């Protein structure tokens, strides 16, 4: 509910700023035309992920991972890394944070190890692992629009190097910080049969078809919406009680819409010139690092979404736009509000009784965020 209230407040603030700055209705229509496919994708993919979780797909995957790990925590952790990156890349960072957090926490408890390295792996890689595809992050979908519809393959070819580095750096930090916990052995858990085989198999089929469809070149909201409708139809027959209003991420949509409107109005009030002065110009490695650093700082001060919108006009080239994405995707690891995925992650942890103070989170983030942004930006700069 807090997210929805903040979103409503942002809509009011954005509307007031729009009136005060003389924003034209045509400009607001252009903004709406740009963001509605993004928000429709978010709604659709969230419904797909929630229903797949109801069908126990993610629990079964977690149990299979535990069995494949063969009693070695570090091997299981490596599998969780792969699962987290894949989920983030194809289902978006918010979806990964919401659905994987309870899976990895329950999994860690079942095998008798600390859930913290697994929980931090989820939230860090949900953010830093969101550079691979347009669907991985709302910021990427917005950037793809600026890249003239480059498509999933083109986007991946542009971001693959910084994306891999952005995954590697947090993994190295986690391996060092939690080396003792990850070295412990565990007893593999007993596999529990799924409650409804038809729902489970239907969800698996939908996900298997959806993943390649998201990178097929279609506008991503089309396959996501089709998948949501297909799964909803199956659940309407097999388990209608699961089709509840809470499946729809209305608070997230309200929050995102409020951010879009507020930042758009703030840009008309002079935010663009301020960010441009801070971000500088040029495509040299130092220039790209400056832009990525400003974007990362903006994400931690505001949120990654408004930080992207504020920094986007300062890009001006593909290379600089990727630097912005590195900053706002891989950088928001310090403050709780830097990424909505982080807030959702912490809410799930609290519900599961797992405690990690924001001070510890911020302290670790102050180590990993600068390392990740700098390493990813320089890797991109020398290989572009």
What does this structure look like?
With 384 residues, the protein is an all-alpha fold. It has one domain (28-383). It is 77% helix and 0% strand. It has 17 helices and no strands. The protein is globular, with a radius of gyration of 20 Å. The chain starts with a helix and ends with a helix. The relative contact order is 0.15. The model has no long low-confidence stretch (mean pLDDT 85).
Roughly what percent helix?
over 70%
Our count of helices gives: 17
In this structure, how is the largest beta sheet organized?
A: none
Query: Taking all residues together, what is the mean pLDDT?
Result: 85
Judged by helices, strands and strand pairing, the structural class is: mainly alpha
Rg over CA atoms: 20 Å
What fraction strand? Answer: under 5%
Question: What's the multimeric state?
Answer: single chain
Q: Could you tell me how far the N terminus lies from the C terminus, measured between alpha carbons in angstroms?
A: 43 Å
Order of helices and strands: HHHHHHHHHHHHHHHHH
Regions with little confidence, pLDDT below 50 for 5+ residues = none
The total strand number stands at 0
Count of folded domains: 1
Approximate shape: globular
Pfam families: CitMHS
GO molecular function, one term: arsenite transmembrane transporter activity
Family: Belongs to the ArsB family.
Transmembrane segments: 34-53, 74-93, 150-178, 190-214, 220-237, 321-346, 358-382
